[in-house]
Amino acid sequence: MTDASVSPIRSTTPTPTTPTPPAIKLRRPTGEDGATIWQLARDSGKLDLNSPYAYMMMSHFFPDTCVVAEIDGEPVGSVVGFAPPARPNALFVWQVTTTERVRGQGLASRMIEHLLWNAPLKGQARWLEATVTPSNEPSARLFKGIARRHGVACEVAPLFEEDSFPCPTQTDATFEPEHLFRIGPLRQAKAA
């Protein structure tokens, strides 16, 4: 038997591997990202769509309390928020969106946590606040889940009732009440 006639024991079939999920980069938005954040909100099909100008203003004036998530330069999520002037130790989350590509992978929580523990609150946030409509069960689960992970209360109370919004005949839209979710008090993060 020659070496050439011996069949190799190794298989030539490649061993299957689990693909490595693409890295998600979180970054502060710039004023130019307002249009991108508006498009993410529009394409979600789930959010109240505000004017592009509102998203441009938030990106420009509140970049420290907003975040854009990207995979290989492609926007896949965003959080728009601010620190209320009367409660500078709170982060108010106005809108959260993720694309279908990353939905259900915990990106929304990751973006909110990034804002809580990084700039500008740098771990000093004691409260996380947001408003959620009664029909928005995914958002309610998101915020209640954050409260559970931190071992703190998630108080829910009426904030804007249905009759507080413009009459449907004036806006060609109907509005649900908005309930305030107030999570905390959060423990201060340790210095990184």
TrEMBL record:
The family database entries (InterPro entries) matched by this protein are listed as: Acyl_CoA_acyltransferase (IPR016181), Ectoine_EctA (IPR012772), GNAT_dom (IPR000182)
Q: Which UniProt keywords apply?
A: Acyltransferase, Transferase
Q: Tell me the route in metabolism or biology where this protein functions.
A: Amine and polyamine biosynthesis; ectoine biosynthesis; L-ectoine from L-aspartate 4-semialdehyde: step 2/3
Q: Which GO terms describe its molecular function?
A: diaminobutyrate acetyltransferase activity
Q: Which domain of life is it from?
A: Bacteria
N-acetyltransferase domain: from which residue to which, for each copy?
A: 24-168
- Locations of Polar residues compositional bias? 1-11
Tell me the segments the record calls region Disordered: 1-31
Q: Give me any GO biological process, just one.
A: ectoine biosynthetic process
User: Which EC number(s) are documented for this chain?
Assistant: 2.3.1.178
NCBIfam families for this protein:
ectoine_EctA
So what family is this one in?
Belongs to the acetyltransferase family. EctA subfamily.
Return the protein name.
Answer: L-2,4-diaminobutyric acid acetyltransferase
